Each structure stands twice: as structure tokens, then as C-alpha cells.
């Protein structure tokens, strides 16, 4: 039988050897061209590399240096009708919201027309005073020592997103505001993610390590535009892991249920406030001096 692909075997132009499959090719291949995406899980306070729902490697260091190349534009929400059992089947959430405002059209058991009015969003609907519906935010990150390497999805729980924190140990939103207030894009900074060992459940804090040089930043910008990065910030964990859809009741039959039974750290829901008159921007400092000041703290 003749080799109909002989034209693609050897002798390819050098530029093709450096390219990855584009989104067009992957779409015509029947999806993402390889199923799920690579992601980093923080289950059990350990960095775990996951591919298609399977753990393929883990790192027990307390900290990891990455560059954030993209982020979902809004904080999302997820709710599970059944309690999670260690070792049990992993399923997609019964109700979830990409924008934190209304259930996603694909949700199998939407609990309310608006997340704000949802009974699963009320304090005490989960374990203790917690909410049964959980906040989370998806990031696309690359390892600081491999800027042109794999893009990983990282899904952060509420405790890693909201709160005031303290110098050098900020939750994500406060950290991003600190970086942004200096006129620096977060994609231009090597970020240290560190487990908060005082938290009963996996919780990350963030601080800047160094500023990228122009060539490195260009690499990161390209990574943020990649198909892998865009899938990382739009796919839920269950979609990334290719887990099965739940067989849950529809809204009229749904009963308020506890979320997965784990100890949780309750975090106040962010409240939108009317914008105040902007103050005159502070004079920018030299970036190297800024980072030195942060490290000294």
C-alpha cells in the first residue's frame, strides 16, 4: 500500500518543526486534538500534574514559581448535588456559572435564575456557615523555568482569591491589584505561589519574584494567545478531565444539598460598590526597587 503521507515525512521546512498544531487543525481532528488539557491541582496541599483526570506527577514543595499568561474574566461558581466521597466517581457539577451571575446553559440542574438569589449561595447551605455553591477562578500558567513549555490550567478556590492577606502573602485579587497599581501587567512578572500552611484546606498566596525581560514577556504574550491557554481559562475542571456528566434532577425536583463534605474556609462574597472619584496616580517607582521593597517585607 502506498504511503499517502509521504509528502509529510522528512524534509519539512524548518519553520514547521517549531510549530504546534493550530486550533483549526484540532477542530477538524474532532475536538481539541487530544482530549483534556494539562492542569495543576492543589488537592491535599500538594502540586499535582493532571492529564485527562489522571495524576501523572506531583511536587511536594511548598512553593512554585509560575507566570500567569491568561485568566478567566470573571469568578465562576460550581454546585454539586451529591456529597463527594474520596475514591468515588468524579462528575461534572450539577449547576455552574462561568460569570458568577447566572447558571450556564449547559448546567443539568440549575438551582435559580440568578446566582445572587440562589438558595445554594446562602450561608449555611454548605457545611457549617459555608455556601454549598463554591467560587473559583481559572488561570492559565507556565512554569517560570520553562516559559515556552506546557500551559497548565490552575483552578483557584475562594480562599485563594478573596481577602486582604498580608505583604508577600496576598490572595489573587489583592495581589493583582498590588501589581497593577505599579503599572505592571501581571503577565510580566514571575509569581511565587505558596501554600498557606495555617489553612485547614489547600489555600495559595501570591507574591512577585522578578520582572521578565522584553524577550521573555513576548514569549508569555504568545503563550496567552495560544489555544491551550484559551481552553484553560474556559473549560471547567470536569471538562478538562473529560469526566462524565451527572444524572441530576432538574430545577423543580432539585433539593438543597450539601456540597462535598470537606472542611472549608468561608470567604465573604465580593460586593460591588459604586466607583469613587479617582485619586491622582502615585508616581511610579523603579520596578527593581519595588520588588526589593516587597521582598524586605
What is the N-to-C order of secondary-structure elements (H for helix, E for strand)?
Answer: HHEEEEEEEEHEEHHHH
Strand percentage lies at 15-25%
Structural class: alpha+beta
Level of helix content?
10-25%
Q: If you compute it from the alpha carbons, what radius of gyration comes out, rounded to the nearest whole angstrom?
A: 21 Å
Biggest sheet record: 10 strands, mixed
Count of helical regions:
7
Average residue pLDDT: 78
Q: How far apart are the first and last residues' alpha carbons, in Å? A: 69 Å
β-strand number:
10
The low-confidence parts are 30-35, 248-265, 274-285
**Anisotropy-based shape:** globular
Q: How would you sum up this structure, described in words?
A:
The chain has helices at residues 14-17, 23-28, 172-180, 214-225, 227-234, 237-240, 287-296, and strands at residues 38-41, 47-51, 54-59, 63-71, 76-79, 95-97, 134-143, 152-157, 189-195, 204-211. It has 297 residues and is an alpha+beta fold. The chain has a domain at 62-234 and 243-264 and 287-292. A hairpin with a 2-residue loop joins strand 2 and strand 3 (54-59). It is globular, with a radius of gyration of 21 Å.
Question: Which short descriptors sum up this protein?
Answer:
alpha+beta, single chain
Helices and strands, with pairings:
Elements: H1 14-17, H2 23-28, E1 38-41, E2 47-51, E3 54-59, E4 63-71, E5 76-79, E6 95-97, E7 134-143, E8 152-157, H3 172-180, E9 189-195, E10 204-211, H4 214-225, H5 227-234, H6 237-240, H7 287-296
Parallel strand pairs: 1-8
Antiparallel strand pairs: 1-2, 2-3, 4-7, 4-9, 5-6, 5-7, 7-8, 9-10
